[in-house]
């Protein structure tokens, strides 16, 4: 038995203390407590703190608009962004990242795999998430809520954060999520008669299969690589 593993070997107290220490983040723990108290514990479904990095809070869908108002009252006046997530694995494969995931010509979509949610979990396929920041507190946080698949509707944040207007329009257009109370949901990128929602995982991006993604086939060599390849080839002859 080595001295390091011997039960009689001296223990480095500083090392032992470091191993036993659980990393905490009092600022974000306090912020989570504030939001939970203001919104109501029943409406805070899940949370996650990455010490020194971020705080995620997932709330019940009916409390989504109330959450925005509470955050504004708590000093989070800077709206960063709002978007949506489709957690369903693509039935078409990634199609542009790796050869093994490409869909063969003529192949049918496969059955989607099991849904795996992020750190705060989820109850279904779609979630809306947003990020806000407090300049006075110099801290931000990420908020999430589930989108009911039977209605595909959540309440708008535009009454509290005017900047959410375009973000919600984009999520409506690309994911098919309706933001109840939004004053003017209309297309930003797509023609008004366009059918489907291109950022849903089950929307087939046929252009990716008709013409290969340029990032895969059009790779230019770095300066000097041609000369090195020629030199290697010459040595092998």
TrEMBL record:
Name the UniProt key words of this record, in alphabetical order.
Answer: NAD, Quinone, Translocase, Transport
Q: What class of enzyme is it?
A: translocase
> InterPro entries, from UniProt?
NADH_quin_OxRdtase_su_C/D-like (IPR037232), NADH_UbQ_OxRdtase_30kDa_su (IPR001268), NADH_UbQ_OxRdtase_CS (IPR020396)
Any one GO MF term held by the record is:
NADH dehydrogenase (ubiquinone) activity
Residue ranges for the region (Disordered) are: 1-26, 217-237
The record's EC number reads: 7.1.1.-
| Ranges of compositional bias, category Acidic residues | 10-23, 223-237
Keyword presence, S-adenosyl-L-methionine: no
Q: Which family does it belong to?
A: Belongs to the complex I 30 kDa subunit family.
Query: What does the UniProt function comment say about this protein?
Result: NDH-1 shuttles electrons from NADH, via FMN and iron-sulfur (Fe-S) centers, to quinones in the respiratory chain.
Listed name of the protein: NADH-quinone oxidoreductase
Which species does the entry assign this protein to?
Answer: Actinomarinicola tropica
């Amino acid at each position: 038995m080595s001295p390091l593993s011997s039960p009689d070997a001296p223990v480095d107290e500083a090392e032992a203390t470091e191993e036993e220490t659980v990393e905490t983040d009092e600022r974000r723990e306090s912020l989570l407590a504030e939001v939970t108290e203001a919104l109501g514990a029943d409406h805070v479904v899940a949370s996650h703190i990455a010490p020194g990095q971020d705080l995620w809070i997932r709330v019940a869908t009916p409390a989504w608009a109330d959450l925005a108002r509470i955050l504004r009252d708590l000093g989070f006046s800077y709206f960063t962004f709002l978007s949506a997530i489709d957690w369903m694995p693509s039935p078409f494969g990634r199609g542009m990242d790796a050869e093994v995931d490409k869909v063969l010509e003529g192949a049918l979509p496969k059955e989607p795999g099991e849904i795996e949610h992020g750190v705060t979990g989820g109850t279904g396929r779609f979630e809306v998430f947003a990020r806000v920041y407090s300049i006075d507190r110099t801290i931000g946080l990420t908020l999430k809520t589930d989108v009911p698949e039977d209605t595909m509707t959540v309440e708008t944040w535009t009454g509290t954060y005017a900047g959410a207007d375009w973000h919600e329009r984009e999520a409506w257009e690309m994911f098919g999520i309706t933001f109840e109370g939004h004053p003017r949901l209309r297309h930003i990128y797509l023609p008004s008669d366009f059918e489907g929602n291109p950022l849903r995982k089950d929307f087939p991006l046929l252009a990716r299969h008709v013409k290969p993604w340029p990032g895969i086939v059009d790779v230019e060599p770095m300066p000097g690589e041609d000369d090195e390849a020629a030199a290697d080839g010459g040595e092998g002859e």
